[in-house]
Amino acid sequence: MVRQFFDDMHGTDGEVRAAYAEIAAWLAQTPAQTLSAKREEAERLFRRIGITFAVYTEGGDTERLIPFDIIPRVLDADEWTFLERGLKQRVTALNMFLADVYGAREIVRAGKLTNEHIDTHPAYCAYMQGVTPPGGVYTHIAGIDLVRTGVNDFYVLEDNCRTPSGVSYMLENRSVMMRLFPELFARINVEPVARYPQDLLRTLRSLAPGGEEPCVVVLTPGQFNSAYYEHSFLADEMGVELVEGIDLVVRDKKVFMRTTGGLKRVHVIYRRIDDDFLDPTVFRADSVLGAPGLMEAYRAGNVALANAPGAGIADDKAIYMHVPEMIRFYLGEEPILNNVPTWDCSNEGALAYVLDHLEELVVKETRGSGGYGMLVGPHATKKTRDAFAKKLRLNPAGYVAQPTLALSTCPTFVADGTAPRHVDLRPFVLSGADGMRIVPGGLTRVALTDGSLVVNSSQGGGTKDTWVLHTRQNGAK
Fold first, then answer.
1. Residue 247: which H helix or E strand, with range?
2. What positions belong to coiled-coil segments (predicted)?
3. Widest Cα–Cα separation across the chain
4. Is omega for the bond preceding 338 within 30 degrees of 0, making it cis?
5. Tell me, what's the pLDDT at 52?
6. Cα–Cα distances in angstroms (integers) from residue 318 to residues 106, 239, 311, 348, 358, in the given order
7. What DSSP state is assigned to residue 437?
8. Does the pLDDT value for residue 474 go beyond 60?
């Protein structure tokens, strides 16, 4: 039988890959009833923790748990070393692109992009033109979505350069797995991820203007935001204050937070609110989520914002197509991690091809996220494809298309036992004025529905713990 998808656990000969040897043995030795009981225990733990997210539907926002799968996804040391090199290369180029966008625009002079690409982009922030953040870094926390199609075939599916979420799930998944299966961790030498909050704090502190002991805060829109748990979790883990806009005040181009002891100077803000809501004197005048005068303090160099306003121009799906050329242009290197082939529907020829091959392609909104507003052609009905074709013709510039990748599968515990399910991976890359940091692993998202390629939690996907082995397993295939 010819395998249609790359199997993370098994080689083409059906043999277990060396990285999964201990996992395979564990699964063979553990009764299904035990795994089922452990899964129920995991759900109780997550419910007790209160880690939820909002699903945006026509009936309103519904809070729910993200399903957690108890079978980990495993990468060996060599695989992770390769990914780490590629991630650092890519995020370095993205930051250089952002510095160029808000600076000299050498990439435009070289004819790789046009000013129109930049100036008409919804995420372009004209207020940032000529502003250089600390260390020249714009996207300090990046989440890069990866998919795998073969032994050495990893592709970048998406770059998240604004306010990427999910790291709390990465950390809580590990915590729950260690609690449920301590004997498994005793058998397998897995790289830790627990240092992420400390790495994040070091990264943020490196951005602070000099002269004082830096005060770092996490700025949240509030408890009704879908990612509020993560905001609170990270603030607690870093040992810093979680604040809302009402807690901040700007005086003499400096930012302070209100405390019971009076005003306290703030040097670095890890902001988890969108650009438009940061400062009502610069962006949306009706915003109550940010602080008036915040951007003036930022431009004066008296406070650092992570990520920088305007960083979103680097993660648009239309800009995504140009990242390999950015790497060549800024770094003089060939990309280590490949892009997925992409058709820009604003191009007349590309649009014609996409319309003729809708049953084979995945079509996405260039500004979309979370799996919303997309068409998975092979799994859509003809009626759905025809309706989507009308959208494409009306607004071709709003869409890109990609082939339906054969996403790798990973063993997953489902209702009728263990079965392969499609997965992706979101590692988190930290970039500060003092360098880059990546904890080994990331958030593995899994499509729990049989045959589904959509891993987004908003579309019914779940998550897994991601294990990077401390050393390479001999005989890896």
1. none
2. none
3. 71
4. no
5. 63
6. 19, 38, 15, 15, 19
7. E
8. no
